Amino acid sequence: MSPTYELPTERPGRVRTMAALAALGALAITVAAGVPAFAATTSEPTPPPPVSAPVGEHTLVQSDVDAWLDGLLPSALESAGIAGGVVTVVDDGKVVTTRGYGYADTGTTGGEAVPVDPQSTLFRPGSVSKLFTATAAMQLVENGDVDLDTDIGEYLDFDVPRSFDGPITMRHLLTHTAGFEERLGGLIGSGDVSPVLRDELAEDPPEQIYEPGTVPAYSNYGNSLAGYIVEHVSGVPFEEYVEQNILTPAGMTSSTFEQPLPDALRDRMSKGYDTSAAAPGPFEIVGTPPAGALTASAPDMARFMLAQLGEPGTGSILEPRTLELMHAPGLDESSLGNLAASPRMTLGFFDESRNGQWIIGHGGDTNYFHSHLQLYPEERTGIFVSFNSTGDSGLVTLELRDAVLHGFTDRYFPAGSTPAAGTVDAATAKEHAAIAAGSYVASRGMQSTFLASLEAFSTTQLTPQDDGRLLITPGPLSDAPALYEEIEPWVWREVGGQRVIAMRVTDDKVEAIGIEGAFTLLPAQPERAQAVVLPVLGVSALILLVAAVAWPVGAITRRVRRRSLPGSVPVTEAGRLRPERTGRVVRLLTNIATVCAVLALGGWTATLITVMGLQDVSAFSLRQLQVVQGLGVLGIVPAALQVVGAIRHRLGWRKVLGTVLVLLALAGIAWFAAEFRLLAPSVSY
Q1: Residues near 648 by beta carbon (within 8 Å), at least 6 away in sequence
Q2: pLDDT digits over 486-537, tens only?
Q3: What is the widest separation between alpha-carbon atoms in the chain?
Q4: 230: buried, middle or exposed (CB in 10 Å: 19+, 13-18, 0-12)?
Q5: Residues in a beta bridge with 484
Q6: How far apart are CA 351 and CA 349, in angstroms?
Q7: Are the CB atoms for 484 and 177 separated by under 8 Å?
Q8: Residues 6 or more apart from 372 whose CB is under 8 A from it?
Q9: What are the C-alpha distances in Å from 392 to residues 1, 86, 274, 276, 346?
């Protein structure tokens, strides 16, 4: 799971979350100043330094790993504002090391600080939990109780939304290609009530927006459906099934999916923090437990890695042939097309290969905990890292996890040679780059709810360069621009880096760009492009804000000057002022609509920030916002009448221009509300 747009979930999710929060900041600035933001840079970024073998040989033994981690993490945690963390490494069938750093309880709310105990302190791995859900599902596949390619309707006792005729299968759920949009409501909360999995999934589910098997789109709902199938088919509650069939066989006696924690484990739980200087947050309750409810110690995560590697004597959870199936790519070109040339999902894991090494893994984030697990199946190696704080900046835990994971690979499995040169000629590369140019949005989105508005503020821009390379702003899973070069037809590699993306193209139009496993970029709808949305929203908001302020200021000024109310029209033949009641009413209604439109924009901004922080917003509050927004939309009618009146009564070009601008601004906000589902009948999200 993951907070922000990462909706606690995984490493990529975390990046998208922060992008969404940055978008919300842009919305607030737009409302206040009307200044379009997010202008895409066209300058060429400095490529990352090439990966090279570290100086000297490093053997994967405890003394070397401990020395490396001890030199890296203590100062990094302190500078990043992270209270504590833990790392464990396995290799060749045994645990190499388990190290703890910082504090499980900083003592900021009283009492003495409690250091992280690497052997006993418990952490929340977030979406790393999905690996346990996938493992449980594969056990049912192994036993013949579930077929990977049979429609899941055979295994459910409720209907799921369907917009396409094709089946939804367990294979689709485990590869995040079932086609569901994302939902945030109820994802993470707090309290002492255990969620009921079936109720969470069956009541108000997300829409299916992609044809199954064709568009990877990370889905907490899809993974949780797999968990419920485990529960329904086995006849055992999901939490109990995992305990009986995974945790106990693997020797994970300090781990559980139970929420809240059982009494025997509660005192060992690390506190979770925004930053190391902040007060701790509550124990988080994940609304759909299969997607991210695991609580575990580092030694237990080491045991899980050994079991996933199929090491003898470490607890058998899957047969070798099933492990091999689970670790292999879950889909091929027959459904993904050329997206299969980018890193693909296995039946649960992301492909995170580096330095020519086959690496599979999964990240996870809650509001406070940030974790990642990687396996090297061919090397019989694994590493798990978890931190108990978000840190001083939104991306700091992602950067620190990458420092640990990439540093581990580079130290113990350095690249043997430089990547092979591309095979695409310059003319073809230029042609393909020109075709790929444009704005793109993440497939992991929320198209049927008011959160569709996030799409306008989190686009990715692809800009062709003169030499045929592509500038991607921001780069995939990053907040900085990245430069890519074509190495095979429609396959691109980061210049100076190792990340690879692939495009699915039909009739010289890009349909999708695979960037990592369950994350895809799709062409943005032209009417939702930032170049359209930001000017319309920004200028409209500025005009309405000025008009809303001018209303009371003008009224006070006229009262002071003892002038008549606005709405009076020029003289009659007798030279007297004649009040126009209709004009007054029209002006009053227009002013009310103007204020409502401004209040609605501010309210939606606050709501989006709250929701992206994984805090729930009540349906009543959302309905109130829709009422206010609706009044702003209805204000178009009196605003149009005001324009007609100003023209008919020849009130002067300034008056006419002012009324026209207000009308256009109200229309602009109404268009935004309609286009981005702010007035959708359902307020689910």
Answers
A1: none
A2: 999 999 999 999 999 999 999 999 999 999 999 999 999 888 878 888 899 9
A3: 106
A4: buried
A5: 470, 494
A6: 7
A7: no
A8: 11, 128, 361, 362, 363, 364, 384, 385, 386, 401, 405
A9: 20, 19, 8, 9, 34
**Tokens, residue 177:** 């290609």
- For residues 549 and 617, give the distance between their C-alpha atoms in angstroms, rounded to a whole number: 29
- The reported pTM is 0.86
Residues 6+ apart with CB under 8 A from 461: 40, 438, 439, 440, 472, 473
Q: Residue 309 has what DSSP assignment? A: T
Residue type, 391: G
DSSP states of 258-306? -SS--HHHHTTBPPBBSSTTSPPBPPPEESSGGGT--BEEHHHHHHHHH
Peptide bond into 205 cis (omega under 30): no
Asked if 679 and 630 count as a contact pair (C-beta separation under 8 A), the reply is: yes
Which pLDDT score, from 0 to 100, does residue 562 have? Answer: 57
Tokens, residue 408: 């581990």
pLDDT digits (tens, 9 = 90+) for 618-669: 889 999 999 999 999 999 999 999 999 888 888 888 889 999 999 999 999 9
Interatomic CA distance for residues 337 and 355, integer angstroms:
26
State residue 479 phi and psi, 5-degree precision. -115, 10
- Fill in the DSSP letter of residue 417: S
Convert 402-415 to b/e letters by CB count within 10 Å (16 or more is b). Answer: eebbeebbbbbbbb
pLDDT at 558: 67
Nearest to 485 by CA among 416, 399, 424, 431: 424
228 touches 290 (CB < 8 A): yes
Residue type, 147: D
If you ran DSSP here, which 8-state letter would residue 171 be given? Answer: H
Q: Is the pLDDT of residue 358 over 80?
A: yes
Once rounded to an integer, what is the mean pLDDT over residues 393-400? 88
Count the alpha carbons within 13 Å of 13 in the hemisphere toward its beta carbon.
Answer: 35
pLDDT band at 14 (very low <50, low <70, confident <90, very high): very low
Determine contact, residues 443/512, Cβ cutoff 8 Å.
yes
The token duo for 274 is: 């925004």
pLDDT at 5: 36
CA-to-CA distance for 168 and 173, rounded, in angstroms? 8
Compute the distance between CA of residue 557 and CA of residue 268 in angstroms, rounded to an integer. 65
Mean pLDDT score of the chain: 88
In contact, 27 and 450? CB cutoff 8 Å:
no
E-strand stretches of 348-499: 350-351, 360-365, 370-376, 381-387, 438-442, 460-464, 470-473, 482-488, 491-494
| Rounded CA separation 398/8 (Å) | 13
**Residue 60 CA: distances (Å) to CA of 66, 90, 98, 287, 521:** 10, 10, 13, 39, 38
| Of 18, 241, 223, nearest in space to 126 by CA | 223
What pLDDT, on a 0 to 100 scale, did the predictor assign at position 580? 58
Residue 165 scores a pLDDT above 70: yes
Is the predicted pLDDT of residue 246 greater than 90, yes or no? yes
Cβ–Cβ under 8 Å, residues 472 and 490 = no
The helix or strand, by DSSP H or E, that contains position 514, with its residue range, turns out to be strand 509-516
Q: Is 498 within 8 Å of 484 (Cβ atoms)?
A: no
pLDDT tens profile 284-327: 999 999 999 999 999 999 999 999 999 988 888 999 999 999 99
